[in-house]
């Protein structure tokens, strides 16, 4: 391995392989256990890294992990999530640090489950960094712009980060897989099937003063 202090000239053609144009990114809306759930619909973009892990799920799903815009392995990974209000993944964990940066809109980041749940809302350019071993989820809560997609950036350490969903999240996925197809296809039914944390968050965002078991950090 060459000494990093030795300055190198880098050919333009090779450097352009490390440029990702947002307009040209190829996103994926599948490849994860919760991808088909109506409350979890989102598109994930693998921008840097995200080599498929040897075991478990890739944080961006099996599809997106095969087509990063900048395919390098240099100790970190970067991607985007695009989703409409009320949409986001179920509770999950990663084997490396995960950092979120809100790019547009407002995003709610929850951690812990049940009575221990906490959350913070991120405005554009706000940051939250989750350590290994903490269950977390995020959701677009830009309720005053219904139907409009917004963007969240996520950065994970390592070269082959893994994702693992909590037992409660997997139970929700299994419940959904057993539901009759016509009911699954119904938008009205989908809105009634929000998970508890999502439903609580939505209600809290629309009618603020009501207390729930989820506590907002910093109050």
Architecture blueprint of SSEs:
Elements: H1 12-16, E1 43-48, H2 61-64, E2 76-83, E3 92-94, E4 98-102, E5 107-111, E6 118-122, E7 127-130, E8 136-140, E9 150-157, E10 163-165, H3 167-178, H4 181-185, H5 187-192, H6 196-206, E11 215-216
Parallel strand pairs: 6-11
Antiparallel strand pairs: 1-2, 2-9, 3-10, 4-7, 4-9, 5-6, 5-8
Cα distance spanning the termini: 49 Å
Broad structural category: alpha+beta
Q: How many separate helices?
A: 6
The helix content is: 10-25%
Q: On the 0-100 scale, what is the average pLDDT? A: 87
**Count of distinct strands:** 11
Q: List low-confidence stretches.
A: 185-213
The strand line-up of the biggest sheet is 1-2-9-4-7
Cα Rg: 18 Å
Principal-axis shape: globular
- Profile the largest sheet: 5 strands, antiparallel
Q: What share of the residues does DSSP label as strand, in percent?
A: 15-25%
* SSE pattern, N- to C-terminal: HEHEEEEEEEEEHHHHE
Task: Give a description of the structure.
The chain has six helices and eleven strands. Residues 185-213 have low confidence and may be disordered. Strand 5 and strand 6 form a beta hairpin. The strands form three sheets. A five-stranded antiparallel sheet has the order 1-2-9-4-7, with no helix packed on it. A four-stranded mixed sheet has the order 8-5-6-11, with helices on one face. The protein has 219 residues and is of the alpha+beta class. The longest helix has 12 residues, at 167-178. It is globular, with a radius of gyration of 18 Å.
């Amino acid at each position: 391995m060459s000494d990093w202090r030795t300055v190198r000239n880098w050919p333009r053609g090779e450097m352009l392989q490390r440029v990702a144009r947002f307009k040209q990114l190829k996103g994926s809306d599948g490849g994860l256990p919760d991808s088909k759930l109506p409350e979890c619909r989102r598109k994930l973009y693998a921008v840097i890294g995200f080599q498929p892990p040897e075991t478990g799920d890739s944080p961006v799903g099996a599809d997106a992990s095969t087509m990063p815009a900048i395919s390098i392995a240099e100790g970190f990974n970067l991607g985007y999530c695009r989703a409409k209000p009320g949409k986001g993944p179920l509770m999950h964990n990663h084997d490396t640090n995960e950092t979120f940066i809100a790019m547009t809109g407002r995003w709610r980041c929850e951690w812990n489950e049940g009575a221990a749940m906490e959350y913070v809302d991120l405005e554009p350019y706000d940051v939250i960094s989750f350590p290994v071993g903490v269950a977390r989820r995020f959701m677009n809560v830009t309720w005053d712009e219904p139907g409009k997609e917004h963007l969240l950036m996520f950065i994970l350490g390592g070269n082959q980060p893994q994702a693992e969903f909590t037992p409660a999240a997997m139970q929700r996925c299994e419940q959904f897989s057993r539901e009759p197809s016509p009911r699954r296809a119904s938008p009205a039914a989908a809105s009634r099937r929000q998970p508890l944390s999502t439903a609580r968050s939505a209600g809290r965002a629309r009618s603020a003063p009501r207390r729930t078991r989820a506590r907002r950090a910093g109050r």
